[in-house]
Amino acid sequence: MKLIKKFLSILLTIIVLFAEFSCMAVYAAEYDQQKPPEKLRAAENGIGNNQYEGYYVDLEWEYPSGFIVSGSSGTFLNFYIQEVPKPYLSSSSRRELKEGGIKVETSPSLSPTSYRLKTLKSGTIYYIDATAYYRYYDGNNTRQSNESQASNRIKVMTDIDINVYSVGPNQIKIEWDDVWSSNGRISYKLYVSDSDKFSNVPSRYIDPSSIGPGKPVQVNQTTGKLEYTHTVSESGKVYYVKIEPDISDPELLYYPQASKTVAVSSFILARGTKISSSSEGTRWRLDWSPVYAGLTDIVDIKYEIYRGDTRTNELPGRIQTVSGNSISIILKPGEEEYVYFIIRAIVTRKDNGQPYYPGIKIESDK
Known about the structure:
Elements: H1 2-29, E1 38-50, E2 54-62, E3 74-84, E4 95-104, E5 114-120, E6 125-138, E7 141-144, E8 154-157, E9 162-168, E10 171-177, E11 180-181, E12 184-185, E13 187-193, E14 204-206, E15 218-220, E16 225-231, E17 238-246, E18 262-265, E19 270-278, E20 281-288, E21 299-309, E22 317-322, E23 326-331, E24 339-349, E25 362-363
Antiparallel strand pairs: 1-2, 2-5, 3-4, 3-6, 6-7, 6-8, 9-10, 10-16, 11-12, 13-14, 13-17, 15-16, 17-18, 19-20, 20-23, 21-22, 21-24, 24-25
């Protein structure tokens, strides 16, 4: 008897749920299917980055006729991305929701028609599409429709991150994103110039055959960056660097034309010459190569000499400021083992005293 009652109770529950589901299906069927937004695209100059939003893509789109379903209580957008990953890094290649639940306003007209996808990865190619859905009332309950079909899918590349470092009196190290598309690693044009205008400067072409072990360009598989050491003509000189992606993928319509321009100074060439020794210490002469000899009409150049101690973590302290390219110093017995010096050039404009190359250190190695 107990088994019969239990069976009847379960059966009744199933019947009630089936009836409720049937009502929901009939009610939902009274509504039209949601349409997706159309003509999805990247906005003009809509690829960039900043310190607050990271790497971003600005999207634009239009709404088709009949986009708002009659009787619905609100319509919303979802944006999906699918990354083209680097084969040596563990990244997902699945289509994933990036940002969703973006409400569509109906007055005075349908909006928004643009949106910024933020916090993307630098130097990365994405497929992007959008869907829509609506909410509706079912009695006292608010229910949600199925998502629409996806909009047109676009292929976008984010800004390339690039950095440059001094590694010697005549060498700089350039690092930038290793970008992969669906058909493999992309190619680049690298520019290095002593002018930020890059006038009449030939590019160095870097294609996949130039990248890898034993090649000019190395891959850092931990950071996903490419690394190249470039030989420059002069020590203690500022150089400007930028890189342009060379795109041959007809599907990739939206990409940055060039990276930002970064600047670095090659190390000042410095050397020490022992002059004399005594029980009180050793006299040395420090000499270094002059910088910006061709700019003497518009800039003032001074050199700050810093003394450091390898036995401590303290920053080196400034001991002299001079206008020439040589000083004499005395080291006490034993100090040669741990004392080091750095020569730093201070270049300012004669007209206003402001730095001629703000933010760029022009200095020697230790």
